[in-house]
Design goal:
Blueprint lengths: L4 E2 L3 E2 H8 L6 E7 L2 E5 L3 E10 L4 E6 L5 E6 L3 E7 L6 E10 L4 E10 L5
Length: 118
């Protein structure tokens, strides 16, 4: 018995093998709030979220001051907190990178005024 043929006479199994596995990748990433301000020494919070893709997701959140946090989650969102300690008004750019089979990333900004330690 002969197998079914499609597309120029190639067997169906060969077409599937040539196409490779289908993977769902992260389609968008966001950080909320997209910008904010605060005072040095106080905790600043963000929520990162993403759509598309299938778990597990690996993430890295860069705080913009040389610090970052990385991990893995099965969720489509993750909360982040951090304290900054500038002695002059400083704007930091946060970057959230999420990957499950092709990285996506986004940024936000946080402006911090000097705190009481300066």
């Amino acid at each position: 018995m002969r197998g079914k043929r499609l597309a120029a006479g190639l067997p169906v199994a060969l077409l599937i093998a040539l196409a490779g596995p289908v993977s769902a990748i992260v389609s968008s990433v966001s950080i909320n709030p997209p910008s904010q301000s605060g005072t040095g020494g106080n905790t600043i919070s963000w929520t990162g979220s993403w759509s598309g893709g299938t778990a597990p997701f690996s993430y890295t959140f860069f705080y913009g001051d040389g610090n970052s946090t990385s991990g893995s989650t099965s969720s489509h969102s993750k909360g982040f907190t951090h304290k900054f300690f500038p002695c002059t008004p400083t704007q930091y750019t946060q970057t959230l990178r999420v990957d499950n089979d092709g990285p996506k990333q986004t940024t936000s900004t946080t402006t911090i005024q000097p705190g009481p330690i300066c």
